[in-house]
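U., I forgot to send this yesterday:
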Amino acid sequence: WQLISRRRRKIAAAGRRFDDMSEDERHRLRIRVKRLRYAVDLLGSLFARRRVEKWLKALADFQDALGALNDVVLGRRLLAQLAADSGPAQAKERYYAAGLVVGWHAHRVRKREKNLKKTLRKFAALPPLVKPQPNPLAVPPVPARGKTVQLRTLT
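Result:
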């Protein structure tokens, strides 16, 4: 639970400066979110089920939104490379087409960033997963009875 709490704090802190992040920093944030999501999914049985479900939903939404932004960044880089690699006869048309696609994606990025900030606020407002309690139904270890056995090493 400490791992989950620490990762949540780091993600929330990074999210507060989201507007100032570079594309690479946003990608690293997406990877952090993905790791936290996997940790919560793996350790979720130790916590209250409904709380875990809310966390997983918020993390999935956050990861999807960050992934969509990353897709736009990669698409823009690919289009720029394709346009630059074209011959002189095709360069003008490819730059024009790339400009149209990049412009359309830029509009979508602004809209997605607003949604992403809303998703981040939802995630930051979630109640924390609390330290798991010991299982009251767990069987305690049985103490040894009788003689104690001492092991010797052969030298």
